Amino acid sequence: MIEAIHFIRKAIIIRLTNAITSNGVTVPIYNRVPNDASEPYIRVYSVDSTEVDQNSDTFMLECSTRIEVVTSFVGDDGGELQANQIASDILTLIRTRSGSYFDLSADGFNVYTCTNQGTSYLYEDGGEKTYFRAILNITNRVEQPN
Questions:
Q1: Where are the domains positioned within the chain?
Q2: How many CA atoms lie within 13 A of 71 on its CB side?
Q3: In what order do the strands lie in the sheet with 129-144?
Q4: pLDDT band at 76 (very low <50, low <70, confident <90, very high)
Q5: Is 42 in contact with 67 (CB distance < 8 Å)?
Q6: Where are the extended beta strands (E) located within 53-89?
């Protein structure tokens, strides 16, 4: 069995790169956010990978990935609408039906589900800025054929 979660994360980053805009500006996508990053930005990171359907003749994994949208506004100017809109744009690209699942065949995997496990919204008063986060929890089931 080969671990598939990093292939899923890479596919998400590729699909989102240069595809999400806010107020006419492309929103950068990161796995690790650099110190000099400014909001808004999107962070994609792996959460866990679990073997499922152990009665199958092939290896089946459920890979959980989080996509975190971070926006900020000076003081109390602004709101979470920007985070909502970016999250919606992400779901439009990521949460698809079978014809548009990630193609991981070159890596030896077949993606057969994509599920939105929910989106959480958080805000944090950071003194000079108010931060809004939308955290999308996405799972993909993948098969590693023999």
A1: 5-144
A2: 22
A3: 29-30, 41-52, 59-74, 129-144, 110-125
A4: low
A5: yes
A6: 59-74
Torsion angle, alpha carbons of 10, 14, 18, 19, to 10:
-110
Q: E-assigned strands of the chain?
A: 21-22, 25-26, 29-30, 41-52, 59-74, 110-125, 129-144
> What's the topology of domain 5-144?
STM4215-like (3.30.2000)
- Determine if the peptide bond prior to 145 is cis (ω within 30°): no
The answer to whether the predicted template modeling score (pTM) of the entire model surpasses 0.90 is yes
| Residue 10: band (very low, low, confident or very high) from pLDDT cuts 50, 70, 90 | very high
Residue 69 structure tokens: 């949208």
Q: Work out the number of other CB atoms within 10 angstroms of the CB of residue 144.
A: 17
**How far is Cα 48 from Cα 61, in angstroms, rounded to an integer?**
10
